[in-house]
Amino acid sequence: MSRVLTVATRRGDLAVVQTQSIIAAIRQRHPDVEVRIREVTSEGDRDRQTILWQLKDTGFFTSRLEDVLLACEADFAVHSFKDLPTRPREGLTVAAVCRRRYPEDCVLAREPVGSLDALGAGARVGTSSLRRGAQLRHLRGDLELVPIRGNVPTRIGKLHDGDLDAIVLARAGIERLDLAAEISFVFDPHRFLPAPAQGALAVQTRCNDEATNEIVATLDDPPARVATDAEREVLTAMKCGCHAPVGAYAEVAGDEMVLAAFIAEPSGCRLLRSRMAGPSAKPHELGRKVARDLLDAGGREILDELEKDRDKGDGTT
Ligand SMILES: NCc1[nH]cc(CCC(=O)O)c1CC(=O)O
User: Fold this and answer.
1) Which residues neighbour 263 within 8 Å (Cβ) at sequence distance 6 or greater?
2) Mutate to test the pocket of ligand 1, among 61, 62, 83, 130 (most ligand atoms within 8 A of CB)
3) Which residue has the least CA distance to atom 1 on ligand 1?
4) What pLDDT does residue 41 have?
């Protein structure tokens, strides 16, 4: 029986290649399924000014695609899982978390360097992420952080044209765009923690669309699902969104998994870490334990301070 599915995608280069890779995976497993593409413009693509972490409302990049799914104008949507809010939209589900190859962040430097230590004193590093900024400052207090926005190719352009010495980006995005030659070095994800679910693609569908869910579920990778469940649970349990200075990284080895996470002041002065092992069968429980550990160790204070700063609209960090 042949079927036609419609995928909703944003227009950016990365969104399009990510969607194409999911279409290819579906085609491989279900040669009889035809997939059509519906392009959608999101708030996040239109707005070039807003500093992301000031937004109370999460889902800047993803909510328009969710609207399209709920309106039955498409059958599934492909998201960078780290961009998807932890609180699911009612009626929608993540039917597949695909295999994750590159969870790490990486550095692209104007003068190629092999490590963070090799960047010159006071080097100017482009990032608008509180998570990346806090870790950079924690490791190298002398670095000057410069806000940078735009999609991946735009940011790489700003590195080459502008007065930046380096930028930090997710390795996954660079690899998917076939730009790995631009990478100076990759961070050890245990030392420089990625965003929860970074590098994983999530395929979202309507909960009640059984025919689509049956097809999409064949793309699910259980170790990626389990690792990202634990990582995202850290955010859920701390009640903070994807723009908080919080990182999490889980590795699954058979029945056991390890989850590491941190929360930091944006200055990087205080950076609290936690790392625990647990059964792979209970990723949410492990995520909650690590979150509680961080909150009890001072994370609650950090979150309260951050909330105050955001209310003041102080986006200078
Ligand atoms: N914040 C935007 C965003 N969302 C997903 C990726 C990269 C791909 C991924 O993490 O799956 C990026 C770019 C970046 O952080 O460098």
Assistant:
1) 238, 244, 245, 246, 271, 272, 294, 299, 302, 303
2) 83
3) 83
4) 82
Domains of the chain: 1-98+200-220 (3.40.190.10), 105-186 (3.40.190.10), 221-311 (3.30.160.40)
- Could you tell me if the CB of 224 is within 6 A of ligand 1? no
**Of ligand 1's atoms, which has the minimum distance to the CA of residue 155?**
16
Give the neighbor-by-neighbor strand order of the sheet with 185-186: 144-146, 124-126, 166-170, 105-109, 185-186
Query: Which string of b and e fits 98-125 if b means at least 16 CB within 10 Å?
Result: bebebbbbbbbbbeebeebeebeeebbb
Return the active site residues: 82-83, 131-132, 149, 155, 242
The model's pTM is 0.93
CA-to-CA distance for 312 and 316, rounded, in angstroms?
11
pLDDT by 10-residue block (mean), the chain, 317 residues: 90 95 98 96 60 55 93 97 94 98 98 95 96 97 95 93 94 98 97 97 98 98 98 94 86 98 95 98 98 97 88 53
